[in-house]
Specification:
Blueprint lengths: L1 H20 L8 H15 L7 H17 L29 H7 L11 E4 L5 E4 L2 E10 L5 E9 L11 H16 L4 H9 L2 H6 L3 H4 L7 H11 L3 H8 L13 E4 L4 E4 L7 H10 L1
Antiparallel strand pairs: 1-2, 3-4, 5-6
């Protein structure tokens, strides 16, 4: 229970940071969004190695769910089938077997089209087409059974793909490098002001990242809002009759500008929150 509460708090903090990065204020229904994204991560992401990209994908799916509530689709959502964990199979579910695929596509016509959509860590999507289908024989599962595996594969267009931006991107990079070489850093400065701090840090070699582990203003803002307690509040929570706060200095630190106490360490802290607490002390 404590681990799930900590995970939920981490998801909410990452959502708030994500919204801030795209110019959004924290909405009144942040709790509802957090629950949706947490359920999505629990269903689709690695239970240990999940990351901010999974939060971004879950947030995108929440937005899509709000849109779909107000849009009529040409096929009604089927009900009745459940996955191996007993969860209802619906449109948008994670699919693993041909049976589930056939079930959800039962209402489609032969003329309806197929498109595979990819999603990166930031939640950006791209449609891949044209496609080919391959069937791999003799796939052995962990339970010892042998199955065939259906794979949808992207293949090159017969004609030049006008959607391919590689040539344009290479030209932009070359121009930026030329500008930098000649002492013009205008475009670099503009780019760096719009690239999230975490993205820049992750682009560094791993051994250098610890040197740039200073929390962002938004991370500090979220930390203070979540963990700060005034004198009366902390005395009440600790159920102590003495109003003196002298004893708190061993386990808490005081931020004068906020007029609040913050735990020096806590089992409820995420790794990042502990880093922020150490920084603020």
């Amino acid at each position: 229970m404590a681990q799930m509460k900590e995970k939920r708090m981490s998801v909410m903090n990452l959502l708030i940071i994500l919204m801030s990065n795209i110019g959004m204020d924290t909405p009144a229904n942040i709790e509802e969004i957090t629950d949706f994204v947490l359920d999505d991560i629990n269903e689709t992401a690695d239970p240990v190695e999940w990351h901010s990209g999974d939060v971004a994908i879950g947030f995108r799916r929440w937005i899509e769910a709000q849109v779909n509530e107000n849009v009529r689709t040409p096929m009604s959502e089927p009900t009745g089938m459940k996955d191996p964990k007993g969860k209802q199979i619906t449109l948008g579910s994670t699919l693993r077997t041909v049976k589930e695929l056939r079930y959800l596509m039962a209402g489609l016509n032969d003329q309806d089209q197929i498109c595979v959509e990819t999603c990166d860590e930031d939640g950006d999507v791209e449609d891949l087409f044209p496609m080919s289908l391959d069937v791999i024989e003799g796939i052995e599962l962990t339970d010892g059974t042998t199955v065939r595996e259906v794979r949808f594969c992207q293949r090159p267009n017969a004609e030049p793909d006008t959607r391919d931006k590689t040539e344009l991107i290479d030209a932009v990079i070359k121009q930026l490098m030329d500008d930098y070489y000649h002492g013009d850093e205008t475009c670099w400065v503009e780019l760096l002001e719009h690239i999230p701090y975490e993205t820049l840090k992750q682009s560094l070699p791993e051994e250098m990242r610890k040197e740039f582990n200073v929390p962002t203003p938004e991370e500090i803002k979220v930390f203070k809002a979540e963990w700060g307690q005034v004198d009366d509040e902390i005395n009440s929570n600790l159920e102590l009759e003495d109003d003196s706060t002298d004893y708190l200095v061993d386990d808490y630190f005081w931020i004068e500008t906020e007029k609040k106490w913050y735990p020096k360490s806590s089992l409820m802290y995420t790794k990042r929150e502990q880093e922020i607490a150490d920084f603020l002390r």
